[in-house]
Amino acid sequence: TIALLSALVFQEKVNCEPQLTPTLTKGLEDMKNIGINIAQIQIECELETDLKEFLSCIKIGLVEVVYEWARGMSFMEICDLTSVAEGSIVRTMTRLDETCREFRNAARIIGNNNLAERMDEASRLIKRDIVFASSLYLEENQQIESIVNAEVK
Q: For residue 15, what is the DSSP state?
């Protein structure tokens, strides 16, 4: 679930194709078919829709990376799976976590506890290690600031 969701969150173009499991490949095909159905409905409703542009929003560049990260692979190992910069990987993971929280909140509002639980689990699977570590730069500045404040008093 979280790996497929990354195809909607990740925004960069990637030159190399990820190695996807048959399940992920089927999931992406299903996403594209849903996109086609939505675009067709928009066209029927006389809404200006460019199917090619609509489907271009699905970017699969980090699907494999997110899948392997959620399975427990190390950050160094997932970086070897792609040419995407480390900062982009971290940014996508952070956005994925935010998206999971938004889906979870919406699911709770409509009473879909199963979806809410799945989004909590997806968030838990990616929220680990260096990707979600507090900034070392900020921590260092906070320590210096507290030392300076203690000396001023």
A: S
Quote the tokens at residue 27. Answer: 């999931």
Q: Characterize 13-40 residue by residue with b for buried, 16 or more Cβ atoms within 10 angstroms of its Cβ, and e for exposed.
A: ebeeebebeeebeebbeebeeebeeebe
Tokens of 152: 């001023």
Q: Find how far residue 41's CA is from the centre of its chain.
A: 27
Q: What is the pLDDT of residues 67-109, one digit of tens each?
A: 999 999 999 999 999 999 999 999 999 999 999 999 999 999 9
Long-range CB pairs of 70-79 (<8 Å, 24+ gap) are 70/2, 70/3, 70/122, 70/125, 70/126, 74/129, 75/129, 75/130, 75/131
| pTM to 2 decimal places | 0.81
